[in-house]
Amino acid sequence: MKFHIYLLLLLLPLSLCYPNDQITIGSYSDKAPYVIDSDSELPEGLEADLVELIQEYMEEPLSYKNTTVMNLLEGFTSKEIQAMFLFTYAAAQVESFKRTRDFFELPLATFTLDPKINYTDYSAIKNFVVSVPYQFASLLKTLEARHVKIQTYYSTEEGLDQLYNGESNILVGDLYRIDYQAHRLYDQEIYILEQLKDAPSSYSLGVTAENPELLEKLNEAIDRIPKSELDHLKKKWIKSPSLEDKTLRDYEEEELQWLREHKTISYAFSANLPPLFFRSDIGDIYGIIPDIFDLLSE
After folding, report:
1. Per-residue pLDDT averaged across 24-29, rounded?
2. Half-sphere exposure of residue 13: CA atoms within 13 angstroms, side-chain side
3. pLDDT by residue (tens digit) across 99-123?
4. Half-sphere exposure (CA, 13 Å, Cβ side) for 257?
5. How is residue 19 annotated by DSSP?
6. Which residues, at least 6 apart from 155, have a Cβ–Cβ distance to it below 8 Å?
7. Please, what sign has the CA dihedral across residues 239, 243, 245, 248?
8. What are phi and psi of 231, to 5 degrees?
9. Are the CB atoms for 31 and 180 separated by under 8 Å?
């Protein structure tokens, strides 16, 4: 991959422009939910949603193209592609491109099927088996040094199989990918135990150093996106409850089952209690209490 990125820089002309003022954002992601295979003619997935969100804050028309690495290289050299999605934990990518500001983090996370697990440092637990991606050499070395039992896996599906089949108690992996595949493949609820603070990464766009004007425009658009809209987008792609910021371990199993079956909680009100509640002439509800429930929903 590092070779491909450097080859891209050698092939790029010194002056980049984009035809018809359209900016095409490329990607070589091949995993859900970043890119989702579907029968739709329109691209689907987290990346397509991000491009659509950025478009709301840019005057220039944007398009999104998911393709192979080699096609991405050809697209840059032919000026058909002007920017690309970057994972910031890939060192070669960070060095080779001017990165925009991040839209949000893409952390590694630990997952479990047992909401009663209660600890803050999973590496200190000696009686659990932890499934870890085979390529995470530094994490594997840390766990081995602390005598933690380890299972390695080569694909998201394999790691989830280890967890759901009882071969491991904890699964470490990409937050979005594990969460999406777990809900697609299994009925049993999975819980986010914690996000790994010592393994930060984030998602951004990259352009070449020869295109500072585009970098500035993209940064301006990203800066204008309200945090609430980015939070809404994250919630769309993360469905699992988090044990890190919720006290689910304090509930009995019957209570947890009730929460699983009642994803939406309704409440009753009187419309004659201003400023707590108001009803407009067209029937819309607003006031202090609806605002509080909106905040709770977030």
Report:
1. 90
2. 13
3. 898 887 778 889 999 887 755 555 5
4. 3
5. G
6. none
7. positive
8. -65, -40
9. no
Strand 129-133 versus strand 149-153 pairing type: parallel
Residue-level pLDDT at 79: 85
Q: Is the pLDDT of residue 248 over 90?
A: no
State the Cα–Cα distance between residues 295 and 298, nearest whole angstrom.
Answer: 5
Q: How many C-beta atoms lie closer than 10 Å to residue 245's C-beta? A: 10
Choose the weakest-confidence range: 5-14, 128-137, 252-261: 5-14
**Contact of 171 with 110, CB cutoff 8 Å:** yes
**C-alpha gyration radius of the chain:** 23
Report the percent of the chain where pLDDT is more than 70: 77
What does pTM read for this prediction? Answer: 0.69
- 127-155 per-position pLDDT tens digit: 789 999 888 777 778 777 777 889 999 99
Distance CA 182, CA 32 (A): 11
Query: Cα(37)–Cα(45) distance, rounded to whole angstroms?
Result: 9
Query: CA 21 to CA 61: how far, in whole Å?
Result: 7
Kindly state the tokens that stand for 192. Answer: 């986010």
- Cβ atoms of 133 and 173 closer than 8 Å: yes
How far apart, in whole angstroms, are the C-alpha atoms of residue 209 and residue 198? 30
